[in-house]
């Protein structure tokens, strides 16, 4: 199921290991532009290709925009976490593909990610203790078929899935949290 151009859980495309991007071409650039529009229109701070139905290793992130004027997401092609801390910290996460709820997720508080940009340059992103750090990990999870539900204990997962079903029944849309 899709709402506002966003694939919603439990769509099987969200559970797939995504293929590496082999070539940066016009088709990929068009997809990035569509993803940028979708993320902005739905008020997100990150979006992975499977969330728009494309099972390739591509994500965009912008955690600092306040309007269309300063909206300029990072494009991450084939991103890989190359370093992460052992220190796990909780943060409240939402997801455009799981609207209407937030979940408290434990994640490393420091990561280093390497990814290619649209120019084909390998860029190193380092983040610690902030939304960008969480977002990098969350979007990379999507590229490996994981959603925030997978980061919960079994008991938390049951509770979160019940909340999600209730949110969907209320008509929750991408970008809405509890």
Question: What this model shows, in words?
Answer:
Helix content is 26%, strand content 27%. With 178 residues, it is an alpha+beta fold. The chain has one domain (2-170): Peptide Deformylase, CATH 3.90.45.10. The strands form 3 sheets. A 5-stranded antiparallel beta sheet has the order 3-4-5-8-9, sandwiched between helices. Strand 1 and strand 2 form a beta hairpin. The chain is globular. The active site is at 139. Its cofactor is Fe(2+). It comes from Collinsella stercoris DSM 13279.
Radius of gyration, in angstroms, nearest whole number: 15 Å
The termini sit apart by 21 Å
The portion of residues forming beta strands comes to 25-35%
Helix content: 25-40%
Whole-number total of structural domains: 1
Q: What's the arrangement of secondary structure elements?
A:
Layout (H helix, E strand, L loop, with lengths): L1 E2 L2 E2 L18 H16 L4 E3 L9 E4 L12 E11 L3 E6 L9 E6 L1 E7 L5 E7 L2 H13 L10 H17 L8
Antiparallel strand pairs: 1-2, 3-4, 4-5, 5-8, 6-7, 8-9
In short:
The chain has 178 residues and is an alpha+beta fold.
Relevant terms:
26% helix; Peptide Deformylase; alpha+beta; single chain; globular; 3 helices; 178 residues
